[in-house]
Design a protein that fits this description.
The complex is a heterodimer of chains A (about 475) and B (about 475). With about 475 residues, chain A is of the alpha+beta class. Chain A is built from 15 helices and 16 strands. In chain A, the strands form four sheets. Chain A has a nine-stranded mixed β-sheet with strand order 2-6-7-10-1-11-12-13-14. In chain A, strands 5-4-15 form a three-stranded antiparallel β-sheet, with no helix packed on it. Chain B is about 35% helix and about 15% strand. Classes of the chains: A alpha+beta (about 475), B alpha/beta (about 475).
Chain lengths: ~475, ~475
């Protein structure tokens, strides 16, 4: 297979997290009984008119801001006219000529290389209803009709499935963190289409485009793009050509499948929506929205690492919004952030997963967490002991020291008691002692392990280590 | 005993003094409509419900001047639990579960809906002959058209069936039939009245307005239906006002412009002369009347065709047989659902207009026609604004002719557009326009004067119209006593 240069552009539809729909006061909800979240406006009844949900505008301004887009100050909506049963008015209200955001970018990193993914435009539109095909019949659920969407369109600026994947992960993180959308691909609140073409040289015009529609996961976006590049390369290698087309990714066969060849001249007869007057975005509106944007993931990661959190931990914390928000509360404090991150991602995360709780739903207030960190830091509490009292720490409100005391697992800090154990271990393991003395550092770890084992984990590890080194001299 | 020939104020007094009950008016309205059945002014009568409502009102305080008054509603205004057909086979089974905002408003006043009036199908026409239910007839001469599209509302008022009707006006559909039938019809400023529940024809022009026997009662009904509506983003933020407040005031010093185009050869001699007579009357009363040149007026019909039909092609797309209304039988596939439903459900004129509108918005045509029309439209509005710097009101004839024969020009689709040449500009510019009768032609058919006001200047239009009405003191009851 020859080498071609792939060009990839991605279009993403994201459902906005509003209480009500974009053009009516129906509830914006998922998973409810079919057609229970509808009214005469959503159903396109004669004489009904759209209203405009202000929250949609706010979230779109927010999205434009976090995607580094310029924000249009004077805009209108347009009608996209086409007949389809999922489209109650047989036109969709969207923004064609005056998208709210334009000329933005998102920064990604693939294999250590940073790249800006340029965003051509992002616009506001309404979602269509959900069609379910059953044999010769099609069932329509209008709960989704009129759910607010933003569509984010990149320039054709990506060169691999990996980049597209990284872009989508970044996008999801940004939109999720800014409370713009749930970004749940499996529930359809984030949907991605990729346009893929290849060419021989940078100087060649773009190759014929294939659009891959509605890919079910971010991983599959990466895979499907690579598969599509492979498919197109083989065709060109064999001297074949193909028509612009729409394909879908079939997870079962792990490849893209032809849906339809694109007809030229798809005519949507766009014109400005006369039922919605021009919308003006003021400085005040933008300021108000920007003030609600929380600290974004990149900044969080950077701060955590600066505070001594290992990079791998920093990344993991940021993947969990509630943990990260919780962690942010600590940043002003003088504490050991490495221990804090280990605690949160270790036993505490396991507990939260098991109990299906958020960290904020436990009794671990900031002050109690700081106390816990301190106890871990000065070895009053060992990791092993922690496991025994974790439930109490997360479910009781008493102080950490009280819990430790009442649990009777306070570790041995009595010098002579520890020294007895150490001596016993040294006696029982002459081989390891010999190894240590001949410079095998690993031996001391083994001996230390034996000390902890002998003391049933209750010896203060720091003291034990000091005494062990002393006794080995 | 007959009451409905009395003025609304008199009826109001009688109701207040309990000398009559709302049911007397409702029963009389239905008797009148029955006697005038031949005029075909109604598509649906609301008899049972109206009588029930009238009964219920007997225990209530007569708290406003419109209380208990019978009213007819054009059948493109959505009425809860009452068939709303738009004079189309497409909706001849459509009973809405919601009210238009104007309906809620007149119900708040305890007005009683008598029925839904005949009209051109989807308000597309200027003769009411495109109605699926047959054309209404002009009470002045049954051979003649009523005008349209609010023909049924004009006819039932002219025939003195009842005192109030609502119409809608996209390109003259209130004013032109009002002129042909000799009544007062007001198209308010765009945004003055909520369009929520008005089945859209051309959204950027549609406006609901009152149709009545006289100017004062017209203002009373307008008082009741205006106001900012949260359900209609194009409705205007305006404080309530009494539109009748200037009625009876002197018009001395009023500055009035007559665009030369409105009095050009497009208007018949008889109509023109009657308007000139009225202009003399105004001058005698101390008003200044100047003939002025205005650009773009001759473009209004072309603009209207492009913009109104473009919007209509999109607005009427929702009628697809899937969720409500007529649905063709035994479709083979989804395309068939659309094709057959729309083929069988819509009449010829509606289909023609959808086709032209879709063409206008297609591909590059949108730039060539629609965008161009929108920019000329803005220029036309500026042209009106230029005139209003120096003048209070603009006047001219409402229609180029009086009502013509039911059988005339029936195969000429362009004729129906040209009927509205004088009334289209107000829709294009979003300005209020009013018809007031000023006399009759040699065949005793009414001639109307068109008054175009500046934005939200309806009160001043009523002031002038009322002066004309009072001074001329015409007998406007077809073939009968005043």
């Amino acid at each position: 297979m020859s080498n071609y240069i792939p060009t990839i552009g991605v279009e993403v539809h994201v459902e906005l997290k509003t209480n009500t729909k974009i053009f009516s006061n129906s509830t914006n909800g998922y998973g409810e009984m079919a057609n229970s979240l509808t009214n005469v406006i959503d159903l396109g009844y004669p004489g009904t008119l759209p209203t405009l949900n202000k929250e949609v505008l706010n979230l779109a301004i927010k999205a434009a801001t976090v995607l580094n887009c310029k924000i249009r100050r004077e805009m209108h909506f347009d009608r996209k006219n086409y007949f389809y049963p999922d489209n109650s008015k047989n036109y969709q209200i969207t923004q064609s000529r005056t998208p709210i955001g334009y000329d933005g970018y998102v920064e990604i990193e693939v294999n250590g290389v940073k790249k800006r993914i340029e965003i051509e435009e992002m616009h506001i539109e309404e979602d269509t209803c959900k069609s379910t095909h059953r044999g010769t019949k099609t069932l329509l659920d209008f709960n989704r009709a009129g759910v607010p969407l933003i569509e984010i369109v990149t320039k054709p600026c990506m060169a691999s499935g990996e980049e597209a994947k990284a872009y989508l992960e970044k996008l999801r993180e940004l939109l999720f963190y800014s409370d713009i959308s749930d970004c749940k691909i499996e529930e359809g609140s984030m949907r991605a289409d990729a346009n893929v073409s290849i060419r021989k040289n940078e100087s060649d015009p773009f190759g014929t485009k294939a659009e891959i529609k509605n890919i079910g996961s971010i991983t599959n976006v990466g895979i499907s793009i690579e598969k599509e590049i492979e498919r197109q390369s083989k065709l060109y290698d064999n001297g074949e050509t193909f028509k612009p087309q729409t394909r879908r990714y079939d997870d079962k066969i792990g490849d893209t499948v032809l849906m339809r060849v694109k007809e030229t001249g798809n005519d949507y007869r766009y014109f400005p929506e006369p039922d919605i007057p021009f919308v003006y975005v003021t400085d005040e509106m933008i300021e108000r929205v920007v003030a609600t944007i929380p600290m974004l993931p990149d900044e969080r990661r950077k701060l955590y690492i600066e505070k001594g959190v290992p990079e791998v931990n920093a990344n993991k914390i940021v993947q969990n919004r509630s943990l990260s928000d919780y962690f942010n509360e600590l940043l002003e404090e003088n504490t050991n952030f490495k221990i804090a991150s280990n605690l949160l991602l270790g036993d505490i995360a396991a507990y939260l997963n098991k109990e299906e709780k958020l960290i904020t739903e436990t009794t671990l207030t900031k002050d109690r967490f700081l106390e816990l960190i301190k106890n871990m830091e000065d070895n009053t509490l060992t990791s092993k002991n922690l496991k025994d009292i974790l439930n109490k720490i997360l479910e009781d409100t008493s102080s950490i020291s009280d819990i430790i005391k009442s649990s009777g697992i306070e570790n041995i800090t009595d010098d002579s008691a520890i020294r007895d154990v150490v001596r016993k271990v040294i006696e029982a393991n002459p081989g390891s002692v010999e190894d240590y003395k001949t410079g095998h550092d690993r031996a001391i770890k083994f001996l230390m392990g034996q000390v902890m084992k002998e003391s049933k984990g209750s010896a203060n590890p720091k003291m034990a280590m000091d005494i062990l080194v002393e006794e080995l001299q | 005993m007959k009451y409905l020939n009395k003025s609304v104020l008199e009826l109001h007094e009688l109701l207040k003094e309990k000398k009559i009950k709302p049911i007397d008016l409702v029963e009389e309205a239905f008797e009148n409509i029955e006697a005038n059945k031949e005029l075909n002014a109604y598509i649906t009568l609301n008899k049972e419900e109206a009588l029930k409502q009238a009964k219920e009102l007997e225990d209530k305080e007569v708290d406003n001047v419109l209380f208990g008054m019978p009213i007819a509603i054009k059948d493109n205004i959505v009425t809860k639990d009452l068939l709303t057909t738009c004079a189309s086979h497409m909706l001849d089974n459509f009973t809405p579960i919601y009210n238009a905002t104007v309906i809620d408003k007149i119900k708040e006043k305890n007005m009683i809906i008598i029925g839904k009036t005949n009209m051109d199908e989807f308000a597309m026409g200027s003769t009411s002959r495109t109605s699926y239910f047959g054309a209404p007839l002009n009470p002045w001469n049954k051979e003649k058209i009523s005008g349209g599209s609010s023909g049924g509302s004009a006819v039932t008022i002219a025939a003195r069936d009842l005192p109030f009707a609502l119409g809608s006006d996209t390109g003259g559909s209130i004013r032109q039939p009002s002129s042909y039938c000799g009544i007062v019809g007001m198209k308010p400023t765009y945004g003055r009245v909520s369009r929520y529940g008005l089945i859209a024809f051309a959204s950027s022009m549609d406006q609901i307005g009152p149709m009545t026997k006289n100017v004062y009662e017209n203002a009373l009904l307008l008082n009741a239906i205006v106001g900012k509506d949260d359900k209609d983003l194009t409705s205007a933020e305006k404080e309530p006002e009494d539109f009748a407040r200037l009625i009876g005031q002197d018009i001395k010093g009023m500055k009035i412009a007559v665009p030369n185009y409105f009095m050009s050869d497009i208007v018949t001699k008889e109509v023109k002369e009657k308007i000139e007579e009225t202009i003399e009357l105004l001058k005698n009363a101390g008003a200044t009347v100047d003939y002025v040149d205005m650009k773009y007026l001759d473009q209004a019909v072309t603009l209207y065709q492009v913009i109104a039909l473009g919007e209509a092609s999109s607005n009427l797309a929702r009628f697809d047989g899937i969720r409500y209304g007529f649905s063709a039988e035994n479709p083979k596939n989804i395309k068939d659902v659309y094709f057959k439903t729309r083929q069988e459900g819509f009449g010829t004129e509606v289909k023609r207009r959808i086709m032209v509108g879709a063409y206008i918005l297609s591909g590059d045509n949108a730039k060539v026609y629609y965008n161009k029309a929108m920019s000329v439209r803005a220029a036309m509005r500026d042209e009106f604004k230029r005139i209003y710097k120096d003048y209070d009101l603009i006047i001219g004839p409402t229609a180029t002719t009086t009502a013509y024969n039911q059988t005339d020009s029936i195969d000429d689709p362009l004729k129906s557009f040209m009927d509205d040449v004088l009334v289209n500009p107000a829709n294009m510019a979003g300005l209020p326009g009013l018809n007031v009768p000023v006399g009759f032609d040699s065949s005793n058919l009414p001639i109307g004067m068109h008054i175009i006001g500046n934005d939200f200047d309806e009160a001043k239009m009523y002031q002038l119209a009322s002066y004309i009405e009072k001074t001329l003191d015409l007998n406007l009851t077809p073939g009968g006593e005043k």
